[in-house]
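Objective 1b: paired records.
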Amino acid sequence: MTDLVLILGDQLSDSLSSLRRCDPSQTVVLMAEVMGEATYVRHHRKKIVLVLAAMRHFAARLRAAGWRVDYVALDDEGNTGTLGGELERAVRRHGASAVFLTEPGEWRLKLEADGWAAALGVPVTVIEDDRFIASHADFETWAEGRKALRMEFFYREMRRRTGLLMEGEAPAGGRWNFDAENRAPPAGGLFLPEPLRHDPDAGTQAVLEMVARR
């Protein structure tokens, strides 16, 4: 019995929920560079290079940690150009009996993944991405009964709950946000900082340093 774990290009974290779910001795990790993900909207070429380089480095790190990694490069012969197509080929190559993946961060991909089980003929399990401070259930509980949903207010609640970017009961720096001063583009979106897996104070400092570097 072989499990297949699909890791997306923005899920390059050792603590990924799908990796924790599976036994390395019975699992093949699939990572695929596909043209569809590089061209569904216009991307800067440097960002594409950054993502592919990060994926290749992460694949090497997984192999060094004992995982079997099936890596499909962009110019590999037979590359279908889509994640669904590469999943189908990998299921056949490895005789996989089940597919696991951490929930995609994009709604577009989540909807696509919903159809993979029927297309592949094997169970596909989508596992919640617990690298976020708030779970789906946290947000649903907060949103219940509210007439209007403003992310600003949910954001403040999460900061109060965790103590991140807080000075006692007040926001760090005296304001809840510095949106007007922080208009720099994101660094690439290849990973999520995970401050609550470590010391919360260290996590706060890491976030502040990230903002300062922008």
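Objective 1b, second protein:
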Amino acid sequence: MATTHKIGDTAGPYDLGDLTTRADELANSHLDLGSVLVPVVEGGQVTVEMSADHQPEAVYLVTPVGRIGIHAFAAPRSGGLWREVARELAESLGAEGAATSVEDGHWGREVIARVPGGEHRFIGVDGPRWMVRCVASGPDGDSAQLAQLARAVLAETVVRRGKEPFPPREVLPLVLPPVLAEQVAAAQEQMAAEAGVAAPAASSLDDAPSAAAPASQETDEVVPGGAVEQAAAATFFTEDEDVIETGEPEPEAARPPSEGSAMARLRGRRRRRR
């Protein structure tokens, strides 16, 4: 019989099947991305990273101290996947030129990769047939505060594993909520227009197969600054940190800071070495 939990009872990250709370009841507190429901941060922003071929690659929470991204992966029933991944991740990042270290955190090993001007912290947790990974990226001076915030976000994250079979380590499909999918379509059209090509018919995240599509985030009451409002005001950017405006131009101060640029530099070095 499944154990029942409530968000905030210190037992997270949670499996959706173990919660007494329904997914649709989290509409204002969590961004529903299909396989994972991520709690938004007060005063933060939702951003989507777009690839060169106009496809969304990742969804982030941007805060004053850094950027947080969460993905869920399929895992074997035996568990223990994060321990393997953490070791491989540390070796891979070190080989790419980052100064890496491993620290003991609330759930076990946390991998830290330091690059010029920034730090990236990888936190993983094993669940029932899934593993969830949080990546927190920010400038050097805010690393302690960002680590604390990332753990708080991960502690209230919910995983919707579904019943579909996926090989271990495969990223569980992300499905964008309607309000964010509309924003992605607008960003795709703008990128395509600027490149002089036809816009793609649909985004990869929106069309990805999933055992369970996200519950609609439409709600009778939209909480100011909550998940629905943050998704509706999402910002889009490319791998080169170029901001894509999809509606009314935002004030400069409201745009996402470039705390993720250190990871972009690390990716750039990786591409140049290939």
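Residues 203-213, 245-274 have pLDDT under 50 and may be disordered. The two ends are 50 Å apart (CA to CA).
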